[in-house]
Amino acid sequence: MSDFGANGELGRGRADSGIVPLKQSEKSTGQSYGWGGPPDQRTIARAYVFWFLGWLGSLHRFYCGDKTGALCQIGLVIGSLLIGEVYLPAGQIGVGIWFSWLMLDLFLIPRMMRKFRETVRSDAAHVFN
């Protein structure tokens, strides 16, 4: 069975009379923002919640659009833990640097969010120019 109606439109479900077409708001706009949602709906308060709950996975940095920084933080903590298995003082120094960076993020979250929104706006402006 096909999910396409007689006019080729993708349906949401079946009824006795045929396919129920998708509303315009339900159709894909072609732009995906991932699990964080559109940039204009992301809030600093939610970024702090991600900082508090997802500190080990640097979820706050992913949410603020800083994927590179998030991956560096994750790499630092994992690398430090692995090095700590071989030479404990070096591992402790690495974890200390990671923890300090995590605490610094408390003050950097508003700036990261502002930078993310500006980047998205400028990218959108280039599309229409």
Please characterize this protein's 3D structure.
The protein is mainly α and 129 residues long. 59% of the residues lie in helices and 7% in strands. A two-stranded antiparallel sheet has the order 1-2. Helix 3 (67-86) packs antiparallel against helix 4 (88-128). The N and C termini lie far apart (44 Å). Residues 22-29 have low confidence and may be disordered.
Low-confidence stretches: 22-29
Strand order of the largest sheet: 1-2
Helix content: 55-70%
Number of helices: 4
Keywords:
single chain, 129 residues, mainly alpha, two-stranded antiparallel sheet, 2 strands, elongated
In short:
The chain is mainly α. The chain contains four helices and two strands.
Layout of strands and helices, then pairs:
Layout: E1 11-15, E2 18-21, H1 44-53, H2 59-63, H3 67-86, H4 88-128
Antiparallel strand pairs: 1-2
